[in-house]
Design a protein that fits this description.
The protein is mainly alpha-helical and 276 residues long. The protein is built from 9 helices and no strands. It has one domain: Fumarate reductase/succinate dehydrogenase, transmembrane subunit (3 helical TM bundles of succinate and fumarate reductases).
Length: 276
């Protein structure tokens, strides 16, 4: 005859949670492994976008004409094979979806981890376990992910309103459609706006450092040689993006990028969409 040991007084037994299983392949995303893969792959896509975006913005150092031609080339991706700006909009939609899935996967994994902690705490009767995360092995970047994530989301909205939508935060005289050089100099010439970009890009690179460092583990890559290279790779990518992106507001504030003696005419098109 077997007997069942009752749970400690005041502790409720753990009841299994029932979740509706989605059809394959959507069911993969319901698991922790699937969410980690989605977060890692979308993070990789966003990192590649940041790298190419920074490289494209280096045309700012060549002058108004070159950065204007770069912006026009973005709008004309696909040439005459597809309608103008169609591929650019598809890329934008893809970036939005990646960003949305990245956020959802991150918060879903955090919620799953919290439920596991609660369940273990209920079984052991240790309430401290259920309410406290173990940060002993965590570094500064990983502990601040919950803060850098929302900062980045707000920064993206501000960046779009500032340099893509333009007149959302600028007057008609300050923002000129189709002239990214003028708009960048006008925006970064404001010390408050320049400071916002500097703080936001620091947050982006802190978040990116931890994301790149943990991406290999999320993808199941566990090789001693690769493990030793994870930190240098993360530092290098985050460092390059930090220095490159901070250079734009700093150089404008220093007066090394300005509209003094500008000879390149502003494009005559009034309804051209800003691509920076």
């Amino acid at each position: 005859m077997t007997t069942t040991t009752p749970p400690p007084r005041g502790v409720q037994p753990v009841r299994p949670r029932t979740t509706r299983v989605l059809p394959w392949p959507l069911s993969i995303y319901q698991s922790a492994v699937g969410k980690k893969w989605v977060m890692a792959l979308t993070g990789l896509g966003l990192v590649l976008f940041l790298i190419f975006h920074m490289i494209g913005n280096f045309h700012l150092y060549e002058g108004p004409r070159q950065i204007g031609e770069y912006a026009e080339a973005l709008r004309g991706i696909g040439g005459h094979l597809v309608p103008r700006t169609l591929l650019l909009w598809l890329l934008r939609i893809g970036l939005i979806l990646m960003f949305a899935f990245h956020i959802h996967a991150a918060y879903s994994l955090r919620a799953m981890g919290g439920r596991v902690s609660d369940d273990v705490g209920a079984v052991t009767g240790n309430k401290e376990y259920a309410s406290k995360q173990d940060y002993i092995a965590a570094n500064f970047a990983s502990r601040t992910m919950r803060w850098t994530g929302p900062i980045i989301a707000l920064y993206i909205l501000f960046h779009l309103a500032d340099l893509t939508w333009g007149r959302a935060v600028h007057s008609k005289d300050e923002w000129v459609a189709g002239d990214p050089y003028h708009n960048i100099v006008e925006s970064f010439g404001n010390p408050v706006v320049a400071l916002i970009y500097i703080v936001a890009n620091i947050a982006v690179c802190i978040h990116l450092y931890h994301g790149v460092f943990s991406m290999f583990q999320s993808l199941g890559v566990n090789n001693p040689k690769l493990n030793s290279a994870r930190r240098p790779i993360a530092i290098t990518i985050a460092g390059i993006l930090l220095v490159g992106n901070l250079s734009f507001p700093i150089m404008v504030q220093a007066g090394l990028i300005s509209e003094d003696d500008r000879t390149t005419p502003i494009p005559p098109t009034e309804e051209v969409e800003e691509a920076t």
